[in-house]
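Have a think about this chain, tokens included, and walk me through the fold.
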Amino acid sequence: MDTESNTKPMAPPRRRKRLRIVCLAVIALLLVLVLVMVILGLTVFKGKRPVTTVNSVALNDLQVSLDILRLRVNLNVTLDVNLSVKNPNKVGFKYTNSTAVLKYGGQVVGEAPIPASKISAGQTNTMNLTLTLLADRLLSNGNVYSDVISGTLPLSTFTRISGKIKILRIIKIHVVSYTSCDLSINVLNRSVANQTCQYKTEL
């Protein structure tokens, strides 16, 4: 039996050397691409915090009637809130459904939905929200009567917008933006006074 005829010929040294060079070149190219993507992700495409701003809070409607015998107040308040979210990133920012709330004495007394949306790179989304105070939620609060009699009704608004920034289709950064505003309703002048807002964003 001829053993030489059953032995497979080994690849020539030059061919093996070429294959090795090609493999090393592919690996080097992949490493360079990964390095470039990391550098871009840390510099040009670095995740930045979206900026949420309350541009204005206006009194849309105010209806007040006093029940002196029962020391109760029948109260209806509607606020128009103009809110903007700016995306300073080089990529789009998507946020999920959320809710803006109206508070009195730390208690939620009104809500307005914030529908999910996407903000393109460098763009700003503006939203007009209507927050209506639900009078039935104030029935158990004994401070309403004294506040209305004093002529000033303290309220606060709160919004939380949660979304993601996707960098180079690989890196996902979760972002949560909070906005809270304290304000006073001047019952006699039917206007908004002493508005102060605080902003916070977490990456």
Summary: The longest strand covers residues 51-67. The CA atoms of residues 57 and 81 lie 5 Å apart. The chain has two domains: 3-42, 51-202. The beta strands are 51-67, 72-86, 93-95, 98-104, 107-114, 117-119, 124-132, 152-167, 171-186, 191-202.
